[in-house]
Design goal:
Number of helices: 15
Strand order of the largest sheet: 4-11-10-9-8-5-6-7
Number of strands: 16
Largest sheet: 8 strands, mixed
Helix content: 25-40%
Oligomer: single chain
Structural class: alpha/beta
Length: about 475
């Protein structure tokens, strides 16, 4: 016989929610097996000393979610499901799909690859710009699905001047996240190709998105200069996703000769290059490397950028610059799907003013100087504490370096030892699609978010955890 709990605790959720949660829990843990008959609504209400309405509402919710079934003139019965055991699911699931909790732990030395430093963020200026936008009468209306024209104009001016692009505001599409833009791009390219090539190791979001849209995906190996062009030619891919300015995660900068070779491949084969310039503004020694998109007139390059690192990821402002040849496909999608703006109009217009009034340029210069100091401090500390026992690659740009440890041992074991020492650092292994049988343990050493004064002690802690 089913024994109901008390449902009358002060301050609890509504009665039907309490009953629903109790029954769901009993079904999921196997206490109520498949085929078991639930008490009738009238009987359950009498046992609980409540009206029939909460019981009926709870039963209907369980019915809608498939936990129970209703049999005419017979009653409600539990649907047979496997008992729910989170620990068992963690053990049973393949490694790449295991249920993992978000790491909310505070680390003394946080070398997270996506952390930002907001100590120099112009909070007062940004707050004032947002307040200006809130006072506008039209800002609460729907915006342009392609992005606010004023911001697109500001972005195109900036890209022409500082990233060497050949673009106009009409070719820019703004989105709230990279997945949204990648999905649109996959839909635009479906009629041209069904195969995407990409760097291996590399960033998985774009290839995975294209895969979800029905594309065949071909991981392509790297050499010391970046993506192997000969393997690209043999792959049969007609769309290539690449990060030439600072490859993720290895960090090499693709030489101009190879960039031109990729452009030649695309132009001669009707191909499309997707250039991810995720941290192109941040080069610390020497001038920023111009984009691949700007190397040729009418280049078949989709340029993808973001304000996530240069300003803040909380803005949710990403963009892509389309080749002229893809604009008709975008406009067709815009009309067919009734696209709406996916990025906040408030943030878009505040960023436009932030750029037009010179705040963005000043902020970028200050952040570049700060990250340069951190970048150089990491290199000095690794050399001082590890000596020849580790190697760094991917220098002079971006927000991370690749740290390879010449000590043996598995990456996961070393990462666990680092966590025990109060340091967070990500193994490189998750960036592979076709991981070699053996590689030296390598880690993505992010320096963006860690306080400058903690870098040396953090590297020292890693060395102690791994080599002593």
């Amino acid at each position: 016989m089913l024994i109901f709990p008390s449902l009358n605790d002060p301050g609890s959720a509504p009665l039907y929610i309490q009953l629903y949660e109790f029954l769901k829990r009993e079904i999921m843990n196997g206490s109520l097996p498949g085929g078991a008959r639930l008490p009738s609504i009238r009987s359950a209400a009498a046992q609980l000393h409540i009206s029939a309405t909460p019981v009926e509402t709870a039963y209907q919710q369980l019915l809608a979610e498939g936990f129970i079934v209703s049999r005419p003139k017979s009653g409600y019965y539990v649907q047979a499901i496997q008992p729910y055991d989170l620990a068992e699911l963690r053990r049973a699931a393949p490694v790449s799909y295991r249920v993992t909790a978000r790491d909310e732990r505070e680390y003394t030395y946080d070398f997270h690859l996506s952390k930002n430093d907001f100590t120099l963020f112009p909070h007062k200026i940004w707050r004032n710009l947002l307040q200006e936008q809130v006072g506008r009468g039209d800002i609460l209306h729907y915006g342009d699905p392609q992005g606010e024209p004023a911001l697109r104009d500001s972005i195109s001016s900036y890209l022409r001047q500082f990233r060497g692009l050949r673009c106009t505001a009409e070719r820019i599409v703004i989105g709230g996240d990279q997945y949204t833009l990648s999905s649109l791009l996959a839909l635009m390219l479906r009629e041209r190709s069904d195969c995407l090539g990409f760097e291996d190791p590399g960033y998985h979001l774009v290839p995975s998105t294209f895969q979800r849209h029905g594309f065949r995906t071909v991981p392509l190996p790297l050499d010391k200069d970046g993506l192997n062009v000969e393997r690209l030619i043999r792959s049969g891919a007609q769309v290539l996703y690449v990060s030439p300015s600072h490859q993720f995660p290895c960090g090499m900068t693709m030489p101009i000769a190879r960039r031109m070779r990729l452009l030649e491949w695309a132009m001669n084969n009707g191909g499309i290059l997707i250039e991810d310039d995720y941290d192109g503004e941040f080069r610390y020694h020497g001038r920023p490397v111009p984009s691949m998109q700007g190397l040729a007139e009418h280049s078949p390059v989709v340029y993808m950028g973001s304000f996530g690192q240069s300003v803040s990821p909380a803005l949710c402002l990403h963009y892509m610059v389309l080749p002229e040849a893809l604009l008709p496909a975008y406009y067709h999608l815009k009309n067919e799907l009734y696209l709406e703006h996916s990025a906040s109009r408030l943030n878009q217009m505040a960023l436009h003013d932030f750029m037009e009034r010179g705040h963005f340029g000043r902020h970028l210069r200050r952040m570049r100087q700060l990250y340069e100091r951190k970048h150089d401090a990491v290199i000095r500390s690794v050399k001082s504490h590890f000596g020849d026992a580790a190697a760094l690659s991917g220098r002079n740009a971006g927000f991370h370096l690749l740290l390879t440890v010449k000590s043996g041992g598995a990456e996961e074991e070393l990462a666990a030892a680092a966590r025990k020492a109060g340091a967070r650092i990500a193994p490189m292994s998750y960036t592979w699609w076709n991981r070699p049988a053996w590689t030296e343990p390598s880690f993505i050493l992010g320096f963006g978010g860690i306080p400058e004064e903690r870098i040396n002690d953090g590297i020292k802690a890693l060395k102690k955890a791994w080599l002593e």
